[in-house]
Amino acid sequence: MQPSIQLFSQLLSQSVSQQRGSMEITMLCTVVATLTVLPNRSQFFQYESVSLSCGQQGNSSGWRVKRNTSRITNGDCPAFLDRGNDSNCFIEEAYLSETGVYWCESGAGVCSNTINISVTAGSVILESPVLPVMEGDDVTLRCTNITSSSNLTADFYKDDVFIRSSSTGNMTIHSVSEADEGLYRCNISAAGQSTGSWLRVRARHPEPPQSPLALDLLPVVNVALFLVSVSVMLLCLCRSHKGEPMRRHSLSFSSVAVYRPVRRIHAPDPVLANKACS
User: Fold this and answer.
1) Which residues pair with 53 in a beta bridge?
2) Which pLDDT tens digit goes with each residue over 177-195?
3) Which of 50, 194, 209, 219 could staple 91 via S-S, CB 3.0–4.6 A?
4) What separation in angstroms does the CA of 277 have from each of 86, 99, 114, 258, 263?
5) Contact indicator for 60, 33 with CB cutoff of 8 Å
6) pLDDT digits (tens, 9 = 90+) for 195-217
7) CB 42 within 8 A of CB 130
């Protein structure tokens, strides 16, 4: 019994250690920040305002917005002057030199997703989601002219292949799939064409039937049940072995008890009967 209990304690300790390790890894994965952009697009006209922020489930302290542009490599993005928060970046007037790659970075060197920002001096931009869209959702692309607020007829292209024309300047992709990923641009007659923006689609994975914690504890439960079963069997065997001498001894007395009346019938001498018991 004692070795079984020791083995069970060792396995349980190992399981708790592994569980704590997996929880620490999970917590590490959940703190990675996500860079977001307002307005939610990757193309901007020159002199437009752009806001970027590192979101981390309500806590973005310790993160900085970084960028690579034609002028700066691994540089800090200017923060909000009135807030003093390095996790936010505010570009009051975007210049062509602001074009580049932006991301969030922690003090430990952990990086978030990257976003491409394009600033143009042209008259047409394509408004498309800057972050990956979920598979199955509807996505609307808009062709915008800086000189006109009304909707103009626009032609849309994907990977330099004409898709369709729209009199409203908008194109909606219903139930987007991975096949819709690609480089999109638009063109407005007599106004010009936009640069290309990459549309990314994120696959929608089905929810797991069980939580990760339940899957981690399942082997531990199986081992515990097995050890309990073994312990019960050993206990039964131990009690069985301890009971065998008593049964033999009782059988011996039963035979004597049966023998004594026989002696009393044929030889009712009390001394002889007492000798048979001795």
Assistant:
1) 36, 88
2) 999 999 999 999 989 999 9
3) 50
4) 100, 111, 98, 11, 11
5) yes
6) 999 999 999 876 555 555 555 66
7) yes
